[in-house]
Amino acid sequence: MRYNTKKRMMAALTASALFSGLSCAVVHAATLEEVQNQGSIRIAVANEVPYGYLDEDGDAAGAGPDVAKPILEELGIDTIEWTSTAFSDLIPGLEEDRFDMVAAEMAILPARCQRVIYSEPNTSYGEGLLVAAGNPEEIHAYSDFAERDDIKVAILGGADQREILQALGVPDSQLVVIEENAEAIEAITNGRADAYAGTGLTVSELEKQDPQVEVALNFVDPILNGEEVRSWGGFTFAQDSESLRDAFNQQLLAYKNTEAWEQTLTQYGFTKDDILSSFKYTTEQLCSE
C-alpha cells in the first residue's frame, strides 16, 4: 500500500503551507545541452546513508549516486561535482542554481512537485523509529506520540516525517527538528527526544553507529486513511530542466532493467519488496494525487 495517494491530502496541504513562504523563482536551470557541452554536472546529496552521502574520502556513494553515475556516463557527462547539504536545503538549492540535480532519493510528494521536477521512481522504502537502547519508553509506532504527551520525537528538517506525524495528530510541541541525521543519536542520548522518526533504512544505519540507540522492535507501520505509509524516491531537477530530466529518465528506465541496478539497491539494504515496489507507480501518479 502507498501513502502517496489522493488520501494523503492532509500531508500535502501541510507541506504546501511549509513551502508557501519560500521563493519559487528559478535563477537558472541546467539544460541537457549545457551539461553535455561542459562535460560536467553539479549534484547534491543530503549526507544520508544509504540514500546519498559523501564517504570519508569525499567520494559520493549511496543508492542515488551509484545509480546516477552510470546513467550520466551514458549521457556523455564525465565529471560530477558533488555537494553535501542539509536535506531542507535541497529544493532551495535547485531553485537558486547552486546545483543542477539532487541524488538523495527524495520522496516524490505532490507539494514538492509544485517546486521541482522528478525522474521516475528509483527506490521505494518504508518508515522506522530509532529509540534509546532497551526502548525504556516502550515506543513502537508513530501513533504513540499522538496518544501520549510525555514523549518527544526528533525529525529531519524538510523531511516528510513531519507531515506524517502531524496527520496522525502529533502536535508540534512534541517534535524536535534536527538538521542532519547524525544529530538523531545525540538528540536521543541527551534527552532532547525520546525517539527519531525516519525511514527504515536510515534508522537501521544509525543503530550501527552507537550502542546507546536501537531500532524499535515490533515497529508498527504508520497507517493513514487505512493505507500503510510508503515513499517513492527519485532524482530531482529544477523546474526548467526538462531536457536534462527527460534524457536522464530515458536512461534510468533502461537501467532499472539491469542486474547492476538491482545489485546496487540490494547492496544498500533495499529488500526485494522495496525493489519491486519501485515499479508500482509513475512520477505523474505520485505528483498528481
TrEMBL record:
Protein family: Belongs to the bacterial solute-binding protein 3 family.
Protein name in the entry: Ectoine/hydroxyectoine ABC transporter substrate-binding protein EhuB
Domain Solute-binding protein family 3/N-terminal: 40-272
Entry keywords, A to Z: Signal
SMART domains attached to this UniProt entry: PBPb
High-level lineage: Bacteria, Pseudomonadati, Pseudomonadota, Gammaproteobacteria, Oceanospirillales
NCBIfam families: ectoine_ehuB
Pfam families documented for this protein: SBP_bac_3
InterPro entries in the cross-refs: Ectoine_EhuB, Solute-binding_3/MltF_N
